[in-house]
């Protein structure tokens, strides 16, 4: 470690002051030496990282300044959780790990929820947190923001690393990147102690120690016999179904996925964040007949979708099982990069392990090899039955959407959003809430891949503004955030961030005065409100106005439409407070069945 010397005063790094001195001697020295700050930044840049989402403070203040000076985009948030969500969804959109940078202990913990959520959702992300002095932390002597962050992050991250020496920064970054994006993507923690940043080493040796990661997410080619097994099963099916999950969206194998579906003519069901992989208006989409196809299908091919709670674990009544836990009789094919995913809930008859791009092209090749005449579409009976069910449900929904009640309900407001998204298919749609989530998912069609970002595997509230900011920063285009009023509250302060960076984000709050709905009362008649309700007629739009954005108070679909159109035309940060009937909505939205004490409404 001789080459690494802590030549600069640590206090300089930890007070957020620049450790750079102005003396000529130091300038000359700095030409031959490189410090930890610059090694971190150069290591990231070398690997194509161009944006950092974070929140400054000891000991990373200077890292944010120097990052900006080095040409990285630094998006500075009001709370680390939102920066973390932003980083994770940037990872989902780009297949590069999204970077979230925080201070030690409390800042780290604030970012940790997002890291855990990234791991759960298979989003590649690196949480980089500054940390306090190891010697003091380990002896629990009460350092400033003392915490054993590495140990705490480990169970929540796909991998966790700490770098103690400047010469190891390149390795640390390379390991973090590989862990985040290879195989099943996930959240990675990188612990950078305060002492690391001012360490210096010979500049040439330092730069040589940095690693440009070669092939960070290597293709994983599926075994030919696994592919053949899957094709055989699919071919023998009478009522086949393909389920596309957000892994399929992440994989960016859009053309091949579409080709597979269109060539086989198998009906498909998109999970929420796979909507738009093929346009939701595609004739093979079975989304509007979900409750019909799941129990009726005989062979189901999952592509980048897990049989977790969102798919009722692949069994029970949803799948035609006789009891709540019984197998419905389906055979499953599972295309996934994780070999351990198969059999996690029900038997997988044909696991196809590999990256989705390679797997889907192998499946296509295997089908083609049989000759196009050998592949016949699924029986007409099956396709007709689905079409019939779809048409019925679509007609029923159209009737509901055509109503224009006063006050607005979810449907009349979302009919507007549906039209606006149809007219602006490139806009990114962010969505959270309970009813606000479920109704948006089923009413608002998506037309392009990876345009819909939502609460994901955990159904986590609070992703709204972080996802919106990242979506705007990464895509450079319009973002529409459809938010429940409770959901919005988790990240609402970030409207300042949206205004500060002048992002084209149009937030629509479907405001029904509370969690799920707004008409609950305290059963005792006491003066405290029900835990489920908020201040009535809250003027959320003024929050946006407070920071120079546009606020709109909308009580009619017309006002909502005008507000959204103007937001998109002007690209100005806009918040539309869309007033919804406080009696609209059910407890827990569509997952009432998971709530043991749900009130029947
Ligand atoms: P959804 O919530 O949409 O059903 P999940 O998050 O449950 O989707 O499932 C995503 C699955 O996709 C995970 O099992 C993950 O291992 C898999 N996955 C992610 N990226 C890839 C990829 N590039 N290739 C193959 N599988 C992938
Ligand atoms: C981090 C529990 C699920 S949905 C929800 C909460 C609090 C809010 C529903 O009300 P909202 O939507 O947003 O007004 P709507 O349309 O139904 O009126 N904390 C976290 N995550 C979750 N999921 C919760 C709490 C929850």
The mean pLDDT is: 94
**Radius of gyration, CA atoms, in whole angstroms:** 26 Å
Hetero compounds: adenosine-5'-diphosphate, ligand TPW
Low-confidence blocks of residues: 1-21
Please report the distance between the alpha carbons of the first and last residues: 68 Å
**DSSP strand count:** 19
Globular, elongated, flat, extended or rod-shaped: what is the shape?
globular
Q: Helix- and strand-based class?
A: alpha/beta
The main pleated sheet reads as: 6 strands, parallel
Secondary structure: helix percent: 25-40%
Q: Please state roughly what percent of the residues sit in beta strands, choosing from under 5%, 5-15%, 15-25%, 25-35%, 35-45% or over 45%.
A: 15-25%
How are the strands ordered across the major sheet? Answer: 3-2-4-5-7-6
Count of helix runs: 23
How does the SSE layout of this entry go?
Layout: H1 10-14, H2 24-32, E1 33-35, H3 36-46, E2 51-54, H4 61-69, E3 73-76, H5 80-94, E4 98-102, H6 105-121, E5 125-131, H7 134-138, H8 149-153, E6 159-162, H9 169-181, E7 187-193, E8 200-202, H10 203-209, H11 224-235, E9 240-244, H12 246-250, H13 254-264, E10 268-270, H14 290-296, E11 299-303, E12 331-336, E13 350-353, H15 356-369, H16 380-402, H17 410-423, E14 428-432, H18 435-443, E15 452-454, H19 464-475, E16 479-484, H20 485-489, H21 495-500, E17 505-511, H22 541-546, E18 550-554, H23 557-570, E19 574-579
Parallel strand pairs: 2-3, 2-4, 4-5, 5-7, 6-7, 9-10, 9-11, 11-12, 12-13, 14-15, 14-16, 16-17, 17-19, 18-19
Antiparallel strand pairs: 1-8
Helix pairs in contact: 3-9, 5-6, 5-19, 11-15, 13-15, 17-18, 17-23
The chain binds adenosine-5'-diphosphate (ADP) and ligand TPW.
The site of adenosine-5'-diphosphate (ADP) has 24 residues, from α12.
């Amino acid at each position: 470690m001789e080459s690494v010397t802590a030549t600069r005063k640590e206090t300089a790094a930890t007070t957020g002051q620049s450790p750079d001195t102005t003396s000529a001697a130091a300038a000359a020295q700095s030409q031959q030496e490189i410090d930890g700050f610059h090694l971190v930044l150069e290591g990231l840049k070398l690997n194509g990282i161009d944006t950092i989402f974070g929140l400054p403070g000891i000991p990373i203040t200077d890292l944010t300044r120097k990052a900006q000076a080095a040409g990285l985009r630094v998006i500075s948030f009001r709370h680390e959780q939102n920066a973390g969500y932003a980083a994770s969804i940037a990872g989902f959109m780009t297949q590069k790990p999204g970077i979230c940078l925080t201070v030690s202990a409390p800042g780290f913990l604030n970012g940790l929820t997002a890291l855990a959520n990234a791991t759960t959702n298979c989003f590649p992300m690196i949480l980089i947190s500054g940390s306090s002095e190891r010697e003091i932390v380990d002896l629990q002597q009460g350092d400033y923001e003392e915490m054993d962050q590495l140990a705490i992050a480990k169970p929540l991250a796909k991998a966790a690393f700490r770098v103690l020496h400047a010469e190891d920064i390149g390795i640390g970054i390379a390991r973090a990147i590989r862990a985040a994006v290879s195989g099943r993507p996930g959240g990675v923690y990188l612990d950078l102690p305060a002492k690391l940043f001012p360490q210096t080493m010979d500049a040439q040796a330092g730069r040589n120690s940095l690693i440009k990661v070669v092939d960070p997410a290597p293709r994983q080619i599926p075994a030919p016999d696994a592919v053949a097994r899957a094709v055989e099963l699919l071919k023998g099916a009478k009522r086949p179904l393909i389920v596309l999950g957000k892994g399929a969206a992440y994989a960016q194998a859009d053309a091949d996925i579409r080709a597979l579906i269109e060539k086989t003519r198998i009906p498909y069901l998109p999970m929420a964040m796979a909507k738009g992989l093929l346009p939701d208006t595609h004739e093979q989409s079975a989304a509007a007949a979900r409750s019909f196809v799941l129990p009726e299908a005989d062979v189901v091919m999952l592509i980048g979708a897990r049989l977790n709670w969102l798919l009722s674990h692949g069994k029970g009544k949803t799948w035609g099982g006789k009891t709540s836990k019984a197998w419905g009789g389906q055979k499953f094919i599972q295309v996934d990069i994780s070999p351990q995913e198969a059999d996690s809930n029900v038997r997988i008859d044909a696991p196809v392990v590999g990256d989705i791009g390679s797997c889907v092209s192998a499946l296509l090749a295997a089908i083609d090899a049989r000759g196009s005449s050998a592949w016949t579409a699924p029986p007409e009976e099956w396709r007709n039955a689905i079409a019939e069910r779809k048409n019925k449900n679509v007609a029923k929904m159209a009737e509901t959407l055509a109503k224009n009640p006063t006050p607005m309900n979810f449907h009349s407001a979302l009919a507007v959003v549906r039209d606006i998204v149809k007219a602006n298919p490139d806009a990114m749609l962010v969505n959270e809430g309970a009813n606000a989530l479920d109704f948006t998912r089923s009413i608002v069609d998506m037309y392009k891949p990876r345009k819909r970002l939502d609460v994901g595997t955990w159904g986590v509230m609070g992703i709204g503004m972080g996802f919106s900011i990242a979506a705007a920063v990464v895509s450079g285009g319009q973002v529409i955030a459809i938010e429940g009023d409770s959901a919005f509250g988790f990240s609402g302060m970030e409207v300042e961030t949206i205004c500060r960076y002048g992002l084209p984000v149009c937030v629509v709050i479907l405001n029904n005065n509370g969690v799920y709905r707004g008409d609950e009362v305290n059963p005792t008649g006491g003066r405290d409100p029900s835990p489920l309700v908020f201040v009535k007629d809250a003027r959320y739009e003024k929050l946006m106005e407070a920071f120079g954005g546009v606020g709109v108070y909308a009580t009619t679909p017309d006002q909502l439409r005008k507000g959204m159109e103007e937001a998109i035309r002007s690209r100005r940060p806009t918040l539309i407070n869309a007033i919804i009937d406080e009696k609209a909505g059910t407890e827990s939205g569509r997952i009432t069945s998971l709530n043991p004490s749900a009130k029947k409404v």
